[in-house]
Amino acid sequence: MTDILFTHSYFLHFDPKELRAHMPYPPLGTITAAAYLRNKGFSVGLHDVMLSEQESEIIPALNLQAPRIVVIYDDCFNYLTKMCLSRMRQAALQLAFYAKEKHCTVVVFSSDSADHAEKYLSRNVDYVLCGEGEETLAELCTLLLRKSGTDASGIKGLAFRDSTGEVVLTTRRPPIKNLDEIPFPAWDLVDIERYRAIWKERHGYFSLNISTTRGCPFHCNWCSKPLYGQVYNSRSSENVVAEMKFLKTHIHPDHLWITDDIFGLKPGWIGQFAELVQREGAAIPFKCLSRVDLLLRDDTIRHLKTAGCKTVWVGAESGSQKILDAMEKGTTVEEIGQATEMLRDAGIRVGFFLQFGYPGETSEDIEKTVCMVRRLEPDEIGISVSYPLPGTKFYDRVKAQLGAKQNWETSDDFDPMVQAAFSRQYYHVLHTVVHKRFRIWRGMRTLRDLSVRPASVNRRSLEILASMMVHGITLPHHLRALKELERTSPTHA
What we know:
seven-stranded mixed beta sheet, six-stranded parallel beta sheet, 19 helices
């Protein structure tokens, strides 16, 4: 019998876009919470649904481990779970149903359940963790399994129904400030070799995920922060490098995704980190996310290069300063260009997150974004549509426009859900057009590079050139469709 069975609600098979990309990462937040509870003396297990095809696959795990508590603990370090997709909410509730059939106490932790606790508490869920989860979960499990401590109403960061059926929301729990106190994730619970095989077969290398911080102090008015709020806490560089040495020695990843919303914001941190990585022989190539204004600060880019950074993704969002200002992004189009040039000069690849459909955006603003991509030539792009989530200024501004649908079903839903300049179908075709143009421009850049260094031709460059040709043939059709959708969109008809 296991005290606590951990699982989560993000099924790769339920998200077609991510299934096509096939770049699965283990549920980092889930196995971190499992390690935390194990350190408190509880026996723990894991049912990882990332690679499962249906919710019912949890039933054998429930039968085998006979847990007293099932914790559906979403990976709060994976941006896909922060999107609060309705298909994954459905999955969480189905997992809760199967757990309750086995007479387990069911606890849920996720961005979505923090926003909609009552919906979960009405569907086989006994407790919702609101805010940072580890300490709250440890106190709750101590109460339930050891009959020790206060009653549930005295545990901070919790939602549940009292004896009368009313929802009780206790006082919010302050975030953990010393993140070094949290143990390394329980990697032993994960089927690492299954993940490795998928990555190696599809991409030729194996990437693993780590986190060095929690939270983000910036004020982009569309960004939802239901778990940590407007805070930023960082692990010490020594603690992070120790984890990298552990991974390098015991799991042997070829690459790391550092999942932080903002990597290395604390002044001096990246410099210390780079020095320690070199001194301890802990370097593993990695990608991370940063802000363009922070990349221009001091020697940040040089330190990233020294530490082994291969790719930096930045929230470029828009090539229109008007839209960046409306988002309260706090960055400029000029800074996007400067940071991109400096990263490229350092030999670091650049990824742009782009966002269309923000209220007030016009076709001229969209064209400015497309032109920015053409001019700056990022190595990768990711495209989304402005998505109102509870707790944001954006949501408060547009909530009167929201109808029955208030969450995307999957990560490529692209439904604006509020009054946007164009239709949902328009943004789907725009996504296709921008990606096709990007691949054509990337091919042209590759041709330019090969003309200077013909000996550098390899399989990857040939794939890029073949992609350029295919997208060059199919682009005109999609451009015509986009123009027609622009003409016939309700707000432009």
